[in-house]
């Protein structure tokens, strides 16, 4: 530990990085599901009376999984491929819930890009409430300082669909890339101000975290003094009866901005409730949390204006069968299959070299 600390100080001093971004990149050596411990964060409080998924009276746990032409023991397969939590809920009842490697139902896991889908939920609510007029507004209505960088033609829709043409290096292994700056840096607003375009907006899909962070700053400014975390607490966490408090990691402690591209920290059952919200078309036990039209637009295939049919409003569509999912680095997933009234949450330390976007629909097909 002393060696690492010394190396961090050396790198910070050598490169004169006020934020010590490079030093932290080397010190922490790639992202981890426990990274909520290393960043400042805003608390998101759960309500006093939580919604609890009941255990199924006739549970149907998966016994095997068919991989590469053979059946594998399901729980051994999950454990061998770095899973820490796996949850299957059908018709509002828990069919299967298992934790691995000392994790439990109370263990916090960093969401990574599941936060992108959460940011999309909040944008939909902000439109419903009139804070944002339309996703066809230019981003410069909310971040006017980007006009000098040619962003007048970039709309919120482009950013939601990942078709803005943003120049952004997504690689987590590059200490000098954009992701390192956004993830480990301490001034997201300054980093956003430096962003540029590589392509004309609306021409092609290119997944980059910078686009969601632009949406996050736009949302913060639209809320006029309220934080993104407090908005999540009031509009989603409390109404959905989350079982546990959560947090949203910030770039800095004082006047910090939420890392909307990556970093909501919560537990498996509460992640599942986000899936239930969209499974019920934005309605939670009779209360419309986000408009049904927003959920519909977020979960139907559309390839117009450069969009990829399999990515809509910060949600992934693994098939054209109506299912959809939120997907985070290292294998964090909230998968929803409306036809089967089914939600699956998988959290893990690594993907385990598994194509979970392909495997989750296969697991769902057994129900």
From TrEMBL:
SUPFAM superfamilies: beta-lactamase/transpeptidase-like. It holds the Pfam family Beta-lactamase. Residues 74-352 form the Beta-lactamase-related domain. Gene3D superfamilies: DD-peptidase/beta-lactamase superfamily. This is CubicO group peptidase (Beta-lactamase class C family). It comes from Sphingobacterium allocomposti. The lineage of its organism: Bacteria, Pseudomonadati, Bacteroidota, Sphingobacteriia, Sphingobacteriales.
């Amino acid at each position: 530990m002393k060696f690492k600390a010394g190396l961090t100080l050396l790198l910070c001093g050598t490169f004169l990085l006020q934020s010590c971004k490079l030093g932290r990149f080397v010190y922490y050596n790639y992202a981890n599901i426990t990274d909520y411990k290393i960043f400042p964060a805003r608390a998101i409080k759960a309500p006093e009376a939580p919604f609890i998924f009941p255990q199924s009276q006739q549970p149907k746990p998966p016994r095997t999984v068919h991989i590469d032409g053979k059946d594998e023991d399901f729980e051994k397969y999950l454990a061998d491929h770095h899973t820490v939590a796996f949850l299957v809920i059908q018709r509002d009842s828990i069919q299967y819930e298992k934790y691995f490697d000392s994790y439990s139902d109370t263990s916090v896991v960093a969401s990574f890009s599941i936060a992108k889908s959460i940011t999309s939920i909040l944008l939909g609510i902000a439109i419903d409430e009139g804070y944002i007029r339309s996703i066809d507004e230019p981003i410069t209505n909310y971040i006017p300082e980007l006009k000098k960088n040619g962003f007048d033609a970039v709309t919120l829709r482009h950013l939601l669909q990942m078709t803005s043409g943003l120049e952004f290096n997504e690689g987590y292994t590059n200490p000098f890339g954009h992701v390192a700056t956004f993830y480990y840096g301490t001034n997201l607003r300054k980093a956003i101000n430096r962003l540029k375009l590589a392509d004309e907006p609306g021409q092609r899909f290119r997944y980059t975290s910078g686009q969601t962070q632009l949406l996050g700053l736009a949302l913060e400014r639209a809320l006029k003094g309220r934080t993104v975390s407090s908005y999540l607490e009031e509009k989603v966490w409390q109404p959905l009866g989350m079982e546990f408090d959560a947090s949203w990691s910030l770039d800095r402690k004082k006047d910090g901005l939420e890392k909307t591209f990556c970093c909501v920290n919560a537990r498996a059952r509460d992640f599942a409730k986000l899936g239930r919200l969209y499974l019920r078309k934005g309605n939670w036990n009779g209360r419309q949390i986000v408009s049904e039209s927003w959920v519909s637009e977020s979960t139907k295939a559309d390839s117009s204006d450069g969009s990829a049919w399999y990515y809509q409003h910060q949600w992934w569509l693994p098939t054209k069968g109506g299912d959809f999912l939120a997907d985070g680095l290292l294998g964090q997933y909230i998968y929803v299959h409306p036809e089967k009234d089914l939600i699956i949450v998988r959290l893990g330390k690594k993907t385990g070299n598994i194509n979970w976007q392909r495997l989750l629909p296969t697991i769902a097909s057994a129900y």
